[in-house]
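Hey, resending since the last one bounced:
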Amino acid sequence: MEGKIETVHRSRWPRLALAASLTLLAAAPGFAQEPPARPPEEAAQLRLRKTPSKTRDYRGKAVEGEERVVKQGDSLWRILIEEKGLSEKRFNRYLVIVGGLNPNLKKPDILQVGQTIFIPIRPDEILGIEVPSTAKGEAKIYRVRQGDYLFKILRDEFGVRGKNEIRGAFDEVKQLNPGKKNWNVLFVGEGILFPGAGRTMAMPKPEAVKPPEGVGLDHGRKLAAQENLPLLEQVMAALGNETQRGGEEVVAIQEGTVRIDRDSYPVIRNPKADQKVILDASDKIPASLKSKLESPGSAAPVVSVKKGDTLHDTVSSLLARLGYQSLPASRPVEVRDGGVGVQVKGEWMVAGPEESGGKQDVIIINLTDAAGRTPDYLRDYLSLKGMSLKEIMLPGLPLPMAPPSPAGRPEAGANPIETWPREKGAMTDALLKSYGIDFTSAHQISVALREGIRLETKVDRLFEFGGGKIALVFRAVGDEARKALQEREKSRVVELDFASLSSRDLLSRLLNLLGEKTSYREHRFSAVEGAAKDKMVVSVAGFLLSGRSLLLTDREVPKGVQGLFVEKGLRVVRFQ
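The structure tokens again:
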């Protein structure tokens, strides 16, 4: 169905065009050379004023940028995407950065004429965008300096010579920097990717990578947004947003009133933040009209879905415009509780709009199938910790069935975590019993040290293991006594000085004695299997004995996550 946009006005809108005034100048202080659009043999060298830079703090790091006074028609989209040529796909992440650098800017996506905002020069560097790899090494980021232009950089820094080689090099640099639109302008301090040293100027063909089976954390990047609009609306609904259809959306602009048919251009509204976005699902709204709809006077942001846009990026853009703050996708959100960590990742991770009292919910959103569904008890546990996990079932897949109860699952209310006694002798006995070892306690012996001299002593635990006898002594003994005990009992004597050993050290010594190649460290357990195994991971420190399905830990395991170990058939014992 063709979209219907009706405009009420008195005269035709003037055609909007972005114009720039460039002047050919000689080298002078405060000016930087610009790169030519064609190789330098065929084009004049342009020069450009150097933008004065300042710094502000962002998460403990100094960020270089410029202070800019907002003019009529300015928006962050126009400044960052259209003017600076940054990536459209990362626009919502740029909003978070600009908001952090401008704490007085309550709504980064709505600018007021006359206000001063700080714009970072290199936002991608703040995001930690990875440098693309090349066939013979990593690409190099070059920072533009005073007097630089593209041919000069290629010639002086990378040794490129010859007309044909320059053309090939220029094409490859453009491919390495798809976000940069205008190559007639280089900004001082701007980061540009160049092929690594020793590279021939030819882009390598990417190797085919077989995707993992199942639904992973980036499944939305594999789905086209225009073909999955119902799924997009499900994601919006899971966050409590409303998709409004039917009737008209009336937006006042300077020239008059624009009436938009919601059946063709649905409006997505966030009732908590009282913000709304017009969804242009077929990319039919003209750029000139879109700019006017997004002007400060109308405040009707538009998210256009172009052919080839992914569901992941379209949802991210919508969330940014609706008042959600994106969280770094490279790091999981973590809850630490009783020495146990629960790390959660998602297709989309956001902090919801701030509510009264400063409360701000953390929301994790994932697309999933039956196999990748997170157990309900873990979802409930996260909810108690102020984190909401939303899972959207993909269409055409069967609904998940409740997993069968594993053998040995405890009755409701039972504690699946065992606790060993604090007293070290009793702890030693518990470990030996778990191995099925029979032992003798307080074995009294009399040992001749010298002629006419005898030592009356005891072995605290005496048992057979691995084809030999082992005598444990819970105190320090001298060399002569140890040698006499070994000769008298024909056994290996092991000193365990309880006075100087912690419980952790004691267990480490005993496990090593019993032939276990393990150490006390943090272990990670996935709540789901398959491609989404990193969706939720529970980490706990201790000794893991895989062959015995036993975990010994001195951490307190929260009740909300104990069921995970039961389902994995893992016996968990807490020592103190």
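The radius of gyration is 33 Å.

Sorry for the duplicate.
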